[in-house]
Every structure is written in C-alpha cells, then in structure tokens.
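Morning F.,

Quick status update on the modeling queue. The single chain you submitted on Monday has been processed. Sequence for confirmation:
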Amino acid sequence: MSNSSSIVDCIGNTPLIRLNRLSDECGSEILGKAEFMNPGGSVKDRAALGMVRAAEASGELKPGGTIVEGTAGNTGIGLALVGSALGYRSIIVMPNNQSRSKIDTLKAHGAEVRLIPPVPYRNPEHFVHTSGRIAAEMNSENPGSAFWANQFENLANREFHERTTGPEIWEQTEGRVDGFVCAVGTGGTLGGVGRALKAFNSDIKIALSDPGGSALNHYFSHGELKIEGTSITEGIGNSRITANLEGSPIDLSWQIPDSEAIPLVYSLIRDEGLVLGGSSGINVVGALRLAKELGPGHTIVTILCDSATRYMERLFNAEFLQSKGLELPDWYVPD
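Structure tokens below.
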C-alpha cells in the first residue's frame, strides 16, 4: 500500500463510475468522474491545488502567507484545505446570504470567513472584487504576504485540469472516450479537460451543459451573451466569458432545465447510490444529450462534482422546491 506525504497528494486520480441504468437505457457508456471523492469533497480541490502550486512557483505566495479569495462555494473549501496542509492562512470573502452550513464548513476547514452584502458583479463591492482589494491592501502593508487566487481569471485553474483531469480520463477509458460534457462556473474544468482530450484525439466532442440563469449556452449557440431561465443549482453558470473559458474547444451546447436535472439527482440516489448535488444532475443530463447526439455505442464522460449533503436546504426542502415548480421524490419522507 502506498502512502501519501500530505492530504494534497490525495487530490485527483478519482475513479470513473459507470452510471448503470442510464448507460443500459441509452446504449452508450455514461461515465462519471467521481470528483466528490477528493478530500475537500469536490472538483474544486483541483483548481485550489493548481492555483496554489502555481503561486508558490512564481513567488506570488510565500512561506507563511495568506490565500485570499471571493467565493460562495467549494473553491473556498478547497483553498482552505490546501492552505492548511501547506502552511498558509486563508481568508474567504462571501455574500452574507449564504447558508449557515456553508459558512460553518469553511470555518471548520480553517478559513477566516468575511461576510459582506450581496451585490451584482458589476458593483465594485461584489465579494470577488472585495477579495482582490483585501489581498492588495495586505500586500501594500507587507509585500508578498497575500495571494489573491482569482479563480475565474487565473489560468492555473484551467492548466491543472489540462495536466491532470483530462489525461486521467484518457487513461481510464484507454483512449476510448468519444465525448466529454460538463457545466461551467469558472471554465477551468471544461476548458482544461477539453484542451487535453482534443490534444489526444481531435474527434472527441466537447460539450457545455448549462443551467438556467446562465448566459453561456446562448453565447455558444448564437454568439451573444444572454441570460435565460433560472436554476436552483449553485456554483455553475456565468454571464461572461472568463479567461479560463476563453478559446475553449466547445463543439456543442445545451441549456438544461431544473425540471430534468433535479429528478435525475434523485434517480441517481435510488438507482446508483450516488448522493450528488444539482450541478451533477445538470452534467449527467448533458451526458445523455451528448449520447443521443452521437448515437448508441459511444463513451461519454462527465463530472460528478460534489455531494447533495451540501445542499440539503434546497434539494430536500419541500416548500422551497414547490416554490420553484419542483417536487421531492416520492420515496423521501420529510420530518
């Protein structure tokens, strides 16, 4: 049995899981990359490690320094975990309308959480811009003391997926992968994996699975950023083209409604024993659409991002779901 010298050595090399019922029904192999098995519980552990390692190499993050980021989701957990393991403090700036469980989880991973009022991205008081100012102020007082992760524009995010996630998929499928599909938040996963797989075989189809409330599907379908619909999913979708997404080799795009994705989340629990968040539902529906596009006999890979246990307030709240035109599965009995 091999040993790891640090928890960060356990990030990546996640298994591919065959989604049995869906594969059997559609006639293609639907495989999910089990990113929820990373030590921080999500695919964002990879982005966190990639950005921190790149900052160390460039000298932007010095021994004993502080990692600063504005995030309302899993990237903060990944950065806090990586930071603690490698000897750095972390400051996470997030809007004060986030769930108590999310705030407590970040604190439990060692992060200092700073809560600010939610405002649109164009507002300079947005949590992402605020985190950048905090890092700049720290560095003005003590040069080199803080590293602003800036996950949306930091290309180390995409590059880490290009070096790790993409090649892992190629090796795990023995090169017999015909398509890859996932949603976009920062664009790091789709941008990096897409580049890696296209380098192995340019015929592999790369597709975007976009939630409601995002402008990306309309952009890749019609060339214009236009927000359409709404979604209860968190951490995916965007209204702009980030540096990580810019130039990504995307062949196909769909908008996936919650009315398809959320029931599929519940089906994955009952049929596969996979308790996953809403973004995984968006991804798996996208995989089914890509399988239909390519026809039977192909191998499609997507990302299983994180656990549904991080979204209990939404995914298993009957009143909330009903307000969005959704329902609990008939097998779930609320208190």
